[in-house]
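S2.1 Query sequence (alpha-glucosidase)
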Amino acid sequence: MRTLKIVGIVVAVLISLGLVIGSITWAVLASQETPPEPPELIDLDWWQHCVLYQIYPRSLMDSDGDGIGDLKGITSRLEHFVDAGVDAIWMSPIFTSPMVDFGYDISDFYDIHYEYGTMDDFRELLKKAHELGLKVLLDFVPNHASTEAEYFKKSVAGDPTYKDFFMWADPLWVDPENETNRLPPSNWVSQFGGSAWEWNEERQQFYLHQFAVVQADFNFRNQAVKDEMFNIMKFWLDEGADGFRVDALPYLMEADPADHDGRYPDDPLSGIMQFEPHQLGYTIPLYTKDLIELYPIVYEWRDFVDDYNKKHQGTTRVLFSEAYANVSMTMLYYGNEAGDIGAHFPFNFDFITELNAESNARDFVYTILRWLTYMPYRAVANWVFGNHDNNRMPTRFRHDMVDGLNAVNMMLPGVAVTYQGEEIGLRDGYVSWEDTVDVEALNRGDNETYMLYSRDPARTPYHWDDTTSAGFSTNETTWLPVAEDYPELNLKKQKEAERSHFKVSLRSY
Ligand SMILES: *[C@@H]1O[C@H](CO)[C@@H](O)[C@H](O)[C@H]1NC(C)=O
Ligand SMILES: *[C@@H]1O[C@H](CO)[C@@H](O)[C@H](O)[C@H]1NC(C)=O
Ligand SMILES: *[C@@H]1O[C@H](CO)[C@@H](O)[C@H](O)[C@H]1NC(C)=O
Ligand SMILES: *[C@@H]1O[C@H](CO)[C@@H](O)[C@H](O)[C@H]1NC(C)=O
Ligand SMILES: [Ca+2]
Ligand SMILES: [Ca+2]
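Output structure tokens follow.
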């Protein structure tokens, strides 16, 4: 027994020794092993992770009491964007315009609209914004010009340089008995309703307008037009703009008569009974939207901007593009499989077009993953929660979803795009038929249906405080009425409150 016990103790001691030596050996070996490579860290450029805030200049801040927002007003409020954690602002068009489509009908691409201020006001805005560390993007509207533009007037007059700047076409048919009875070149329908072709008496031809009658489409098969677009971009980049939001790209080009027996081909009919021939939806825009020929033009713009960045110091200038299109046509704006590169990103409108108050968590996940699935490898994602063309975010969803949606916007990878007022949960304002000024509502609707089309409710003035016109203007009358809920729903109140949408978004941004 005793011997056995001694043997047992010896064995136990040996095992313990073995364990200790083994552990030490393991520790020594492990410490000599090369540590795993740290994950590759890619330096992100400003535009790859920014909070981008859309300003609707007419409605942010009025500095001179005429009831209309202006550049000096924006400059006076720039600190707000710093407070809110915004990195970059983009302003809807501030260029000279008859304002039929509130600036998307530009008559001088090289100057500031008089109601908004002067070139010096713009320079002042830019200077202060840059001092505050804010990037400033302008709205580039390449598809069309106002019929008040010199380009169009000269084109009508047959000036050799501008003759083919726009989409001119002869009538399809003229009544031999009465020549004022004529058919337009095709059945194309304008985005704002009615034929996309308008007769011009002086030139004795039709011109194309995919939007309002006074917004004549440029002819992108004309090299001089393409060159002019580079000139416009260069002009504003030279002024110091940090890039552009690019407007309405799916409509940039239309079918070429050369491919269709010399005439503009009719769009196929949708067959939807409720639509009449002059109404959007009567046709399927096969020859008027998403044409594959438009993408190389966007890729050339990107080359131009990249080239500009190479030649000039400073921050990276960028292109963010607007297109309401299906996911495959949208992704092509990033670039194509041949290696062409387009916009830094096309806006992702899925939170506007795919989701609403009825959506459940699965719908949100599905929609988010769809973008990330289709997006090209290493591209930058972005998420748009509202803009000047759609009902405001709290109105499209629910008022009690504001904080959640702002948080989702900030947490998703890539760029958060937010529309004026989302940081305080600004809702659609009520705009009566009498007060309606939106060309889309006026053209497509009447006193009973205008609300289906009107973009005015998303454009009512910002609510700074509870004073006259919500602190937007000293004028009691403003270009669109201030929404009635401003005494309760305004920035000042939300800054003072212990909890508010602004305080939540402030922490999230
Ligand atoms: C107040 O605004 C209205 C509407 O924009 C305008 O007609 C009026 O002239 C403005 N008043 C002043 C004093 O500018
Ligand atoms: C010619 O047609 C126009 C438009 O349809 C009509 O207004 C006009 O009265 C017609 N003129 C004659 C002489 O019939
Ligand atoms: C998107 O639209 C294009 C042409 O308009 C079509 O060829 C394509 O199949 C569509 N893609 C999806 C995913 O719907
Ligand atoms: C719309 O206008 C028509 C014609 O002027 C009128 O009969 C109708 O009562 C109006 N409807 C509303 C809701 O005001
Ligand atoms: Ca003003
Ligand atoms: Ca076009």
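The chain has 16 helices and 17 strands. The mean pLDDT is 94.
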